[in-house]
Amino acid sequence: MGKSGKKRILLKIGTNVLTKETDNISRGKIEDIAKQIAYLKDDYQFVIVSSGAIAVAKQFVKLESNGKEINVKQALASIGQPHLMRIYQESFRELGLLTSQCLLSYSDFEKEQSKLNIVNTINVLVENNYIPIINENDTVATDEIKFGDNDKLSALTAALLNVDLLIIATNTNGIYTKESIHHNNVKTILETADIQLLKGEAEKSVSLRGTGGMTTKIEAAEIAQNANIETWILNGLNDNFMLDAIQHKSVFTKITKK
Description:
With about 260 residues, the chain is an alpha/beta fold. Helices cover about 45% and strands about 15% of the residues. It contains 11 helices and 8 strands. An 8-stranded mixed sheet has the order 3-4-2-1-5-7-8-6, with helices on both faces. Helix 5 (about 110-125) links the parallel strand 3 (about 100-105) and strand 4. About 40% of the residues are buried.
């Protein structure tokens, strides 16, 4: 909880949500997120971890490869990141919301001084009504591109900032039971503190546009849980997905504290 007494939410938004499962970033989805934050800002502070830089770049550029796909992706991230931030800035500013950019690498979480700097900087931003929008510094680090689609980064940041709630917005109504998936009649696990149960149920599927699957989201929830933070995994494709979850109007997975 911040100094203002407001609860602090770390919102992680994946590429599938930002593109609404297309090949293009959806300005409408970013506007939907902005509208929800504007509605909730009297009671909540927000920190956002956002994917999508590579998806933005792919909309208007095709790079020649030097034989290493990861280098091309890093270059695309470099091109797409400022365009992604521009869309956030424009969409949020229309509703009176201020944004800032923070680029982090996993190595930043291994150094005590770096961690202190992250906390101090983000606290100053949030207490001055700026919404930090965080992404992996893809041009120097390859972990997020190859593996976790910012899921781990969001959990590490949530733990470091000691937020009240981690929300992971994805393209499903939370975590489904494996049996219900096999029977083509999906059923959401509504609430549990049992991470091992979730790991056993998760399908190791990887989406076409994002780089993470449900496994990485469960691993992120485990990091958050170890920091005594609750995690919600919900369907960010729906309009008002945060409002509906907070108001108990939607189906999603709540991973509670131990």
